[in-house]
Amino acid sequence: MKQYSGYLIDLDGTTYYGKRRIPTAELFIQELLARDIPFKFLTNNATRQIHQIQQMLEQDYDLPVKDSHIYTSIIAMVNYLQHHHPDAELFVIGEEPLKTELRQAGFTISQDRSADVVVQALNRQTNYEELAMATQAILNGATFLVTNTDQLIPTADGLYPSSGATTAFLKHATSIEPIVMGKPHAPIIEGALEQLGLPKDEVLMIGDNYQTDIQVGIQNGVDTLLVLTGVTQKEEVPHLPVAPTYVVDNLSQWMDKI
Ligand SMILES: [Mg+2]
């Protein structure tokens, strides 16, 4: 059995499940912290700043992690823009945490249809006018970047459409395919690996969702551990097109392999 030098770990369904705690996951992460093993939480969620997630993990889940343990599709977006569009003026469809991170990284948000780049995430306050201006910006030649294309968000009031529904709207209107930061796409895992400072063959990606967490590993040459505490069900495992490297019922089964 191979030993890994570092880990990338999904949040919802892996570290907790909605508001429910997963004690085996907490013990696993506490063990990583105690032994100073490098890891990062990897999440597509683009509606919270890193520090808000850090506080939630510390206060609600007994996980005294640092901001540096968290890598989101917002941070992937910032890093991608810094590499590819360092001086770009942005049109942003997104919520305040995304806009704050972009401004703190030095980007100008003009909300003008002549912007160089359209950055799209989930915005639960979006309206037709905003979508129309973004459409015009893309048709005018702006690069179309998306944090994540998640389909649905679970809420107390049932399933709501997520970021990908807005992406579908803009794609349909413009016939332009966006570049996506979040899992299963490359930018989020490349950015996280760069910060982790480890070669990809020494890192294990842990997640509950085959389509995102496991696919991001498979498509980017990182070994994967599917944990059956969330989205992907045990009955599906024999039928998955490409098998994860490992499958466990919960993370207590990985404790002796750290
Ligand atoms: Mg998950």
UniProtKB/TrEMBL annotation:
InterPro entries: HAD-like_sf, HAD-SF_hydro_IIA, HAD-SF_hydro_IIA_hyp1, HAD_sf
GO cellular component terms attached to this protein's record: cytoplasm
Superkingdom of source: Bacteria
Gene3D superfamilies (alphabetical): HAD superfamily/HAD-like
Record-linked NCBIfam families: HAD-SF-IIA, HAD-SF-IIA-hyp2
Protein name: TIGR01457 family HAD-type hydrolase
Organism: Suicoccus acidiformans
Similarity comment text for this entry: Belongs to the HAD-like hydrolase superfamily. NagD family.
Transmembrane segments: none
Alphabetically ordered keywords of this record: Hydrolase, Magnesium, Metal-binding
Cofactor(s) it depends on: Mg(2+)
SUPFAM superfamilies given in the database record: HAD-like (SSF56784)
UniProt GO molecular function: metal ion binding; phosphatase activity
